[in-house]
Design goal:
Elements: H1 2-26, H2 35-38, E1 50-52, E2 56-63, E3 67-76, E4 84-89, E5 94-97, E6 109-117, E7 123-133, E8 139-149, H3 152-162
Parallel strand pairs: 2-8
Antiparallel strand pairs: 1-3, 3-6, 4-7, 5-6, 7-8
Length: 163
């Protein structure tokens, strides 16, 4: 049994040592690593690009139960048609309206309307909308925030339940 354990240990070490050389040998003077490019994804030059007028919106202080909306305007500054296939809010209280599966030509401007329902959401709220599109990254992010002042009657009930 001891011989079998030693053989397994030696084989494991040999495998471990041999695997470490492979990655290092691939980097040569003819193929140097550019650390600035290595951390960034390759950008397709013909991809559509979503250029937003803003990517965050602060509603400020609102009352609990208020429903507020904002618009995010964007332009396709890329070289091909932009198609948004999906937009999802981080919770059910955040609902986006967007031009779904509609080709947006280069140079065209569209809007995404985001609604936020502050019912039962007292305190500081930060929500996001994730867009799935045919851009180089495939995803774009919009953010909203609000400071929701609690409804006094609802807060009284919450306080009573927490005791």
């Amino acid at each position: 049994m001891k011989k079998l354990n030693r053989i397994f240990l030696v084989a494991s070490l040999a495998l471990l040592v041999s695997c470490q050389d492979g990655a290092a040998k691939k980097i040569t003077n003819a193929n140097p690593v550019n650390t600035t490019q290595a951390s960034q994804p390759a950008v397709k030059t013909d991809s559509p690009v979503m250029s937003f007028d803003k990517t965050t919106h602060d509603f400020g202080t609102i009352k609990e139960g208020e429903k507020v909306t904002t618009k995010f305007s964007f332009t396709n500054t890329g070289k091909s048609d932009l198609i948004i296939v999906d937009a999802r809010g981080s919770c059910g209280c955040t609902v986006p309206e967007y031009p779904k599966n509609t080709p947006i030509k280069p140079g065209d401007t569209q809007t995404i309307t985001v609604s936020f329902d502050s019912s039962n959401k007292p305190g500081v709220q930060q929500k996001s909308v994730t867009l799935s599109a045919n851009t180089a990254s495939g995803r774009e992010m919009l953010r909203i925030k609000a400071n929701v002042t609690p409804d006094p009657a609802k807060q009284k009930l919450r306080d009573a339940q927490s005791r």
